[in-house]
Amino acid sequence: MRIGDPVVQLSVERFRLLRDMINERYGIFFGDDTRYLVQSRLGERLAHLSLPTFEDYYYYIRYSADGQTELEEAIDVLTTNETYFFREEYQLHSFSRQILPELARNLRGRRKLMIWSAGCSSGEEAYTIAVLVRDSGLFADWDVRIFGSDVSRRVLAKARRGVYRASSFRATSEAQLTRHFTKAGEGFAINDDIRSLCHFGHLNLLDEDRIALLGKVDVVFCRNVLIYFDKKSKLRTISSLYERLNPGGFLLLGHTESLLNLSTAFELVHLSDDLVYRKPEVLDAQ
Amino acid sequence: MDIEKRLEAPSPEVRRRALLDLGPPWNTSSADHVLHALSDEDWRVRKEAVGIARQMAGDDRVLLRLIDLLVQEEDIGARNAVVEVLVGAGPHAVEVLMERFPSLRPGGRKIAIEVFGGAGAEAALDLLVNALHDPDHAVRICAAEWLGEFSEERSILALRGCLDSADKMLVLAALQSLDRQSAAVPWYEVESIAHQALFGGDLLMVLGRSGDPRAAPVIAQKLGDELAAARALEILHGASSAAAAAVQEALGKLEPSLLSRLAMEAIDFEPKDRHAAVACVLWSRSETQIDTIIELAQRESLYPLLLSELGQWGKPVLDVLSEKLSTLSGRPLASALGLLARLWPADIGDEERHVLAFHLASCDAVVATAAAGALSRFGDSKVVDRLALLLRSDNERLSKTAGHALKDIGRKYPKEVHEALAAVELEGRAGVALCQVLEVVGGPQDAPRLTAALSSPSPELRRAVVATLPSLGGAESISILALAMTDEDLGVRMAAAASLSKLGPAAAETLVSALHGTTGPLKAALVRGLGKVGHADAPRILKSLLRDSTEVALAALEAALALGVRFEEVADQILSHGDPEVIKQSLAALGDSLSGSQLGRLLSHANWDVRLAAVDGLGRLPDKDVEKLLSERLDLERDDLVIAALNKALETRRGRRES
Questions:
Q1: Shortest CA distance from A193: residue in chain B
Q2: What are the Cα distances from residue B436, in Å, to B397, B426, B556?
Q3: What span, in angstroms and rounded, lies between the C-alpha atoms of B435 and B129?
Q4: Based on the domain organization, do A152 and A105 belong to the same domain?
Q5: Annotated catalytic residue: which of A16, A25, A41, A160?
Q6: How many Å lie between the alpha carbon of A260 and the closest alpha carbon of chain B?
Q7: What's the pLDDT at B102?
């Protein structure tokens, strides 16, 4: 679309059709107040596909052979993927100082650590976790896997490239930057020893069956993801995350998120700087 | 507007449509119009008229008028249209034309012969043979040309009889026809004309087919002038060992430069001519041709021929090629190395190995690639470090070839190769090549290294890693492959599905989980994988997929049968699939296991090809009720092909019963 082109209007009815379809497939929920945002972002897709109206766009997704691919494109442009390394530092501090040592003690028998960054966007969170695990020095010679998943293939490609510009390093110390990154053009590339710990994959958090491919994990980072979901989708996702966690495994949510009114299956753990959730070691008989 | 006016209309399309409106049924005036339209200026009108005239030719009056037109018509387009009508008008037209033949004028006889030949009318064969002695020259030539279309002995004998004719044009036409028939003519029948340049390539081919060693020098002399000479020699060479020896001798006597020139020119020839020309060079068994042979060896397509023939030269050619190595460089050197690598016996000595190792260090990538290729066969632990270094080459071909060589050497020296690979990084092209070598020499200790490489941004490397994992053993492979099933690259997921299929029952749960939300070829691959590894719940899962998309349904059928699911359990579902192709392929897969009632239901399928396949299946069943099913369908069927199949099936069954 070019400047000056007439804007295709997204009526309330069509907005709801599109919104409900996205919600049904991905759990992401757009409130009524986001209609103009959706209109402006999906307007680019209409222009790209030469479709005259949002109704045509809806039916294109619903019934054309490329519908699923287009829906993924829509998710790509609709979800804000802005993130950065070492985001919510106080929580990461607790993770490094308390959770990792506890896991190192508890898992020393199997010497395998699996952490899932659910909704990893362009990979900053997954690499941050890898840096923290590496810097802890507790897991040398362990089988460590940090798995980042997202519904957007575009951001996954960026995560795999592992090259970032300055805005991704707003909370990164000089020492960390020097130790774990190498200058690459106008940005910095993650070093191979960190990259080699991270895997990325395309997963929809509502797709419980495919999520089972991950096997069991010890920690789930699901930060600032559930805020986009409606309650029903949150419940399904929380249930999936619970299912994937090993007993004693941790769930870390964003600082504005909680499981209040969503799940009582987790126990709340008070750490020095944060509150996190944990799957109980032994389930209550009830 | 009435038809007559429309037939004279300026628009060809109006005239064409008017012809269609003439009938059937047709009357005398219809025939006038149609016959007139055969000489219409517009080809579309003539084409329409030909079609109609063919149908009308069943009427003798029309037929005779067509024959009259045949001999009177001076307009070539119209005459050809009449020929076309008569060629397609069936045996009766031929019969009538044969009766009229003696009374026709020479021009008419010639055209009549074209009709007999075009129609492939065997009934007219004697007439054609007799026409070789027609008083008219053009008729004789025409008969000789058309006899080439009849492969009967009579025809060939008659053509052979023309070879001693004083009429050179007749001899040429006969030679052409004999060549078309690939007829063998004894040497004594062609000896007298063997040296006549006028007859060109057709004569040479006939000489070649004589199989007589005496033909060899005659044909060989023509190698510089006639393209067909090489092919004629090739035919002669294959006739007998005596003929082969004669060909070899004749070629050996030729000027060496003539053969090399022929071979180099042959590179641009059609495959058959190229093969023959190169074969002539090789049959000369002349060391003077070694440079040419090295040059030819740069074409991979010629390798089979070069190797099979050079192999018969024996040790001398190996010595000549080995001596040549020190005088060559670049591509010719690479070609010579490539030839030697294939011609050397398996037990070569240290000297030959040293030669290969020496060239492996060449800074010319083409030469190093050829040496690496040769070391696939002859390499030992001494060259693995160098090959590991070449694995990292920027030259893709060299890197790949080094990988293949390491893989082959790794089968004999796994430990040494594995050690040499330790320094190679799992990245980029070298990483891909390294993965392939690790398939042979790797073990569980390599799993962490490979797993780390799965974070690479290169899908090619991730695919290679995923393909390598099953050969390493170790239970961890499955969990890594499960993660790879979420990869955003379809190729990686396909490779992961294939790898999981190799890991036995332990991979079954992962395959089942991966099926969810998957479509198309990936889903089909997973389904086939499930059929390979087995799973307690697999039969149920596979049965539920029998109505899926075409490729998935067929994969599910294949997997279910592989797991021993009884066909009765799957037949009804798969045979009611919406895609007729699935049904047809299922019928082929289920073969004779289907019952009469299952096949009988398909007799009323909407698609004729499904009904046809069902008739075919029913026709083979021994059940008594089948005949009734087929007969009932015959009353309802409207498709010609299915009707024919039904009749055939019923006829066969009745015949079987009577016998």
A1: B452
A2: 14, 11, 30
A3: 71
A4: yes
A5: A41
A6: 31
A7: 83
Same domain, A165 and A258: yes
Return the minimum-mean-pLDDT range out of B9-18, B26-35, B487-496.
B26-35
Does residue A286 fall inside a structural domain? Answer: no
Same domain? A32 vs A124: no
Domain span at residue A100 reads: 89-278
pLDDT tens, position by position, B65-97: 777 777 665 667 777 777 888 787 777 778 888
Chain A residues with CB inside 8 Å of B510's CB? 213
Say if residue A260 is in the same domain as residue A127. Answer: yes
Of A19, A35, A134, A150, the active-site residue reads A150
* Residue A132 in this model has a pLDDT that exceeds 70: yes
B11 closest CA partner among B35, B33, B44: B44
- Number of domains composing chain A: 2
CA B654-B657-B659 angle, 5° bins: 110
Architecture in CATH of B595-659: Alpha Horseshoe (1.25)
Per-residue pLDDT band for B271 (boundaries 50, 70, 90) equals confident
- Say whether A192 is catalytic: no
User: What does the pLDDT read at residue B73?
Assistant: 57
| Amino acid A220: pLDDT | 97
Query: Does the residue A130 lie in any domain?
Result: yes
Question: At residue B205, what is the residue type?
Answer: M
| pLDDT score of B438 more than 80 | yes
Contact between chains at B483 and A209 (C-beta distance less than 8 A) = no
For residue A31, the Cα-to-chain-centroid distance in whole angstroms is 20
Is A284 part of any domain? Answer: no
- Cα angle B261, B265, B270 (rounded to 5 degrees) comes to 145
Average pLDDT, chain B: 85
Contact B455 A195 (CB under 8 A): yes
For residues A203 and A144, state if they share a domain.
Answer: yes
The answer to whether residue A16 is catalytic is: no
